[in-house]
Amino acid sequence: MPIHPAIVQVALHTPSHSGVGDLLSYASERPLAPGTLVRVPLGTREVLGVVWDSDEATGELPDGATLRAIAGVLEGVAPLDVPWRRLVAFAARYYQRALGEVALAALPPQLRDLRPEQLARRLRRPVAAAGESQNAILNIALTPEQESARARISSENGPFLLFGSTGSGKTEVYLRCVQEVLEADPASDFPTQALVMVPEINLTPQLEERFVSRFAPRFGPGAVVSLHSGMTNPQRLKSWLAAHSGTARIVLGTRMAVFASLPGLKLIVVDEEHDPSYKQQEGARYSARDLAIWRGREQGAKVLLGSATPSLESWYASRPPTPEYPEGGRYVRLHMPSRIGAGALARVRRVDMNQQPRRTVFSAPLLQAITERVARGEQSMILLNRRGYAPVLHCVDCGWKSDCPHCSAHQVFHKTDRTLRCHHCGYTVRVPFHCPTCGSPDIHPMGRGTEQLEEQLSALLSEVLRPDRTPARIARIDADTTKAKGALEAQLAQVHSGEVDVLVGTQMIAKGHDFRRITLVAAVQPDGALFSSDFRAAERLFALLMQAAGRAGRDAAYMAAQAVHGTQPEMWVQSFHPKHAVFEALRTHDYEAFAAQQLKEREEAAMPPFAYQALVRSDARTQDVAQGFLTAATAAAHAAGLPGLEVVTLYPPVPLTIQRVANVERAQMLMESSSRAALQRFLAAWQPVLQTTRSQPEHKGLIRWLVDVDPLAI
Ligand code: ADP
Ligand code: ZN
Ligand code: ZN
User: Which CATH class is domain 612-709?
Assistant: First the structure.
């Protein structure tokens, strides 16, 4: 009998909608364990693939079948383990994407590009020695609140929601929980590992410093690695391999890190768990926070979510038991209400803009407060969530506005380089000297962005001196000033060193930074979000303002020293609706009251977390085609009587708020159900119907469609 080669199933990234199934079969000289990384021919190319579980992984070739053989095995990289493969398979299923796409996207890009011999060379390079030693870790004494949280995390299973004020010492609790995991005796011969996620790349350096200084002396210089999209491909591969092989014990990263291969994983921390950036907005639209919960349960790792303003989903999931529901929520809620060092939370000061002269940007009392701080050498931070000089340019004579020709949006006026730029498609033109429609020279900016704030503030503070008798210094941090690599770090360093007196910026500066000398934070124009059509807008605004307020007065010692001047940390809000519930709750720092009020509204309206949602979006050359496709697919779903439909509501398609981007018309439809399982059943059954609908001639103009499960923006 001739020896038949083994047949292996391989997950790979096939072009989307190519009609090829999730797994392709290849012939192999020898059986290969699931999880093995291989290179295989695909069309005329050779691509990376992952050997996947299959009941017929070995067997005889069917008669006459010509299976292509795998091209090579990535020797030296251990097969990806069962928990990793299960995580990937779950994410693909839940978020309605191809298995191969999710699996390959979860691997470092360089793994895809390196030939096996290049990788082998890379693997031979010496890695930082694990270098574990008996050096004791120098721990500071925990406060009673921290200690009680730590003890419960240590003794209970979780998942945990650590609800702690800004500056309450959550990071210190993470450090201690990580330490406990690393020092625990591993059940297997694989070292124990922890994953710590933060929402933004720019928060990783500070955190990395804290983790390295704490753990490197004991566990070696290579014990802590980062994983985020700001790293070069070689760096990412290096971190990934270290985590996969167990030389790295702690992985710090952004949302993508949730897919890191961590065979010894025992703890996952999700810091600022409410942050929208945990949700991926392209490809597989996964929530790293939600996957963390799933992964922890599957892999037997504890999960710790932390926030001063938890998402309403997590807040609700951690509700305490009531007589009505004696078991309470699925999560364990832990409180840390006090700031370290008995530091006070910022006092909230609201300015009623109805009482201010028209067109006021900085009200007199706010300007006064900033001025006093500059004179005392303290720092202030001014927030405005809009970059550029003005959101639109308009003509006084004929009403012309700087609309983007390709999008249903204005082009933003950028004064520094005299351009009009569309923030949606990037289309950029020089600022015209005359109105393009009527020729009038009377064209003006309307509204304001961070560039304008910076300019006006410079003028307003031009006479104000710092304690060293030099003029006040103003800096701006937003996506425009931080494009160059390292620019953000350099600018943040200037703030930390005290070179800057007033920092103007977008929400980028409101998150997480441990600024020591900021004693005033101001939101000059936060009203926009109050009347948004997105039901989460109020929740997001409240979280942002609370977090921004938390940037003021973080250093108890500094605040004590400044107290002789009467300094108090302050959060200023200028609003035309100063009595709005969001600002009322902010004033008393009362997240719980705010959450209770929001949850009541959500429950009455049967919205998340009391219902589950998904969106299908379609892009086409015309709005008719975009909506027509969704209407037809809906009709087909009803005609086929798809499973789950009896408890899933399908809403009619509508145009997106920004209906056209780069000449593409966009429409979406919402699906809602009180049952997550039913919604999942329906989506799975609907997927092939959407495919079939798409191939019908009347939908020829359709460019793409995509599904967003648990969408964050509606
Ligand atoms: P959070 O993450 O909740 O905003 P951090 O963990 O960053 O707070 O702590 C705020 C500040 O308090 C940090 O400078 C930190 O070093 C300090 N800190 C935290 N825990 C303690 C403690 N137990 N004793 C003294 N200082 C602490
Ligand atoms: Zn005009
Ligand atoms: Zn545009």
Answer: alpha beta
The amino acid at residue 99 is L
The CATH code for residues 144-336 is 3.40.50.300
Q: Is the CB of 340 under 6 A from ligand 1?
A: yes
Q: In b/e form, how buried is each residue of 651-663, taking b as 16+ CB within 10 angstroms?
A: eebeebeebbbee
Q: What angle do CA 527, 199, 192 make, to 5 degrees?
A: 155
Instruction: Yes or no: say if 328 and 338 are a contact pair by the CB < 8 Å rule.
Output: no
**pLDDT tens-place string over residues 243-284:** 999 999 999 999 999 999 999 999 999 999 999 999 998 888
> Is the CATH number 3.40.50.2300 carried by domain 343-387+449-603?
no
Where do the structural domains in the chain lie, given as residue ranges?
3-123, 144-336, 343-387+449-603, 390-447, 612-709
166 lines ligand 1 (CB under 6 A): yes
Residue 58 pLDDT class (50, 70, 90 cuts): very low
Instruction: Say how many Å lie between the CA of residue 401 and the centre of ligand 2.
Output: 8
Instruction: Give the nearest ligand 1 atom to 340 CA.
Output: 12
DSSP element (H, E) containing 617:
strand 612-620
Dump pLDDT digits (tens) for 656-694.
989 999 999 999 999 999 999 999 999 999 999 999 999
The predicted model scores a pTM of 0.91
CATH superfamily name and code, 3-123? PriA, 3(prime) DNA-binding domain (3.40.1440.60)
Q: How crowded is residue 544: how many other Cβ atoms within 10 Å of its Cβ?
A: 21
Nearest CA among 620, 631, 614 for reference residue 679: 614
Report d(CA 380, CA 524) in Å as an integer. Answer: 13
